[in-house]
Amino acid sequence: MTKSKLNLDTDKIAKARELSKQITAPVQKYIEKHTTVAIERTTLRMMGADGVDSIGVPIPNMVVDQIGDHICYGAAKYYINALLKKGVTPEELNNEIANGLDLTKIDFVDFSYIEEKAQELVEAFATKVKANVAYRAEKINTYKEKENSPLLYLIVATGNIYEDVKQAQAAAKQGADIIAVIRTTGQSLLDFVPFGPTTEGFGGTYATQENFKIMRKALDETGEEIGKYIRLVNYCSGLCMPEIAVMGALERLDMMLNDSMYGILFRDINMYRTFVDQKFSRMINSFAGIVINSGEDNYLTTSDAVEKAYTVTASQFINERFAYESGLPARLMGLGHAFEMNPDIKNGFLLEMAQAQMASEIFPEAPLKYMPPTKYMTGDIFKGLAMNTLFNFIAKSTNQGILLLGMLTEAVHTPFMQDRFLAVANAKYVLNNMADFSDDIEFKKDGIMQTRAKVVLDETIEFLEEINKTDLFNAIESKMFAEVSRPKNGGKGLSGVAEKAQDYYNPFYTYLENELNIVKEGNKL
Amino acid sequence: MMIRPYGDTLNDGAVQMSFTLPVAHSAKADEAAILFGKKLGFKEVEVVHSNPLSDEFTFFVVYGKTEISIDYDKVVVEEVEKSLDFYGVNNFIKENIKRKIVVVGACSGTDAHTVGIDAIMNMKGFDQHYGLERYPMIEAFNLGAQVPNEDLIKKAIALKADAILISQIVTQKDVHIQNLTEFIELLEAEGLRSKMVVCAGGPRIGNKLALELGYDAGFGRGTYPENVASFIVEKMHERGVK
Fold it and tell me: Fewer beta carbons under 10 A from the terminal one: N or C of chain A?
């Protein structure tokens, strides 16, 4: 890392980290004692449960519905038991379930057989995912030269996966390093994952395993053609966080939007459900080498970016802590923030730059994800282009990891193909023209930027102290985040949370905990 | 007065355009862009910039001159119904009602589809229009789906609601009409009808139907959160609510 420009007090940074640890500890304890329907469906998918019945209900949902309250024992043993008793493959079992087989009506074999079979299934899953990790590492290494720094991130959102493919391939050829396929409106609130290729979405395309596969193949093809590894992104959020994670792990997605609190605050998903789900989803992402992108930018579309800058920094600390607790290393933490200050503010650029530089000094190993202006974009596309240029300038000069390109038509329509081209051209101009700017400058001692960063860090610590005093659950309930209150027992999905029984069994969860060296809160001194 | 676009000389008719054609970048593609401009009716069409977007798409920046003119004196505009925007609504509440207002919403009856009420109420909103939860001057409570009418009313009383929003997506066998009617009757029985602004919404619910059923307004397809918020606060103000 280059030396500090902001002269931040390292003791204060350490203090903020310690506070985040204290804040998340009680949440971890809750997480360890609970499972959810989404976690059980995810476990079933890891074993090969897939497909739908004649009316489109996914097999994992059918099994979890059959098990009902007994998910407190884990769904794994029911599925494995049926595999053994019937002597069939997962595909064959899925067919039988689709045709009405009830797994709870089958007598249990001796548990040692279930454990033995579980080991085989875990290994099969792990082998597949590890192969994906190795493939990605090799390709990235081979094509490293052509990567932009920061990586350029573009979004496609047609609703039709085949149309998305055309736009994504074009975007990759224009210079994007990362392609995100936006999800259809409302998918985060579905308590199941749709199946198969889809061509009808609203403002985005359904996240399905088949859609992942189609886009992965298309981007691999384009990547080979242009000599680059194109990273693919989707959304690991909502009521199916861990399920989407496992689909992404199997289909070699490279990044996932995955925030520990976004669903609670911005989608009104129950907090207990989200906390329990986010951990398993992050464990899977970590195992699959998937970079998570957290959603701090959302705070600034709600609140004023100058006044509430500390909420972004505080959330970054909390997201970082939750990620560590899920075994996720810093190099996979695409912590988010955004360029959302009112362009009329005097010296607004300096405040934005101080914030971005601060994030990069506090989280030096994390590939920070920097989000473009949206709130103050208007139909004046020319001013929009100018704002995007300043945004690109900060991204480059503060060493951000992931640069989500701003669209000049942000306030007008979903991007036209040419809008993406203009965005890439703008970014490439800035990236090249100021390639070593960051190494060549220092900030003035006690100048506007150093002072600003100090103030925001102080406010962050104050805020974290307040949260720690009341605890995170109460803090969310009492509107301390994003100016919205989410009651503990409110929101969607609470009924899908169950306390684990003493003999809860989930060989995949246990395997990942061991692989990722996760120390349970309950076992900490 | 006859007018046409102004480039650098009165009546030159200069227009700037940019578009993409689904063909590979080539001299032929440039010519196609010029022909396209001419077909639009432009004269002196010039491609000043063209760039490949991929193997099968090319982007053009084109200038042309039009001979079309408009008689400005004959231009008539229809007065559109005005709606305050996000900031307008919050300022209106601050200035006129002088306290936060409470809005309770639900997808009531048997309807399990929250897409409508979520679009209006969820913080994130939709299509770049923030939902009511994001309005600093509105306390918004989205009770979700399948809320029985009785419960909705109880909750509205408990929260001291100024307005209630009911979303109805499912309209098979006119189930929405029965449900909306039942709600209004219950509200009247409680003596609350005149104390609250009550709106219905859904893809097949228009203002006319809602008024017939005894609601203050109905919001159909294409409604944004600020349209609903704007109606509520103006109605409250009209009724002299403080």
Answer: C
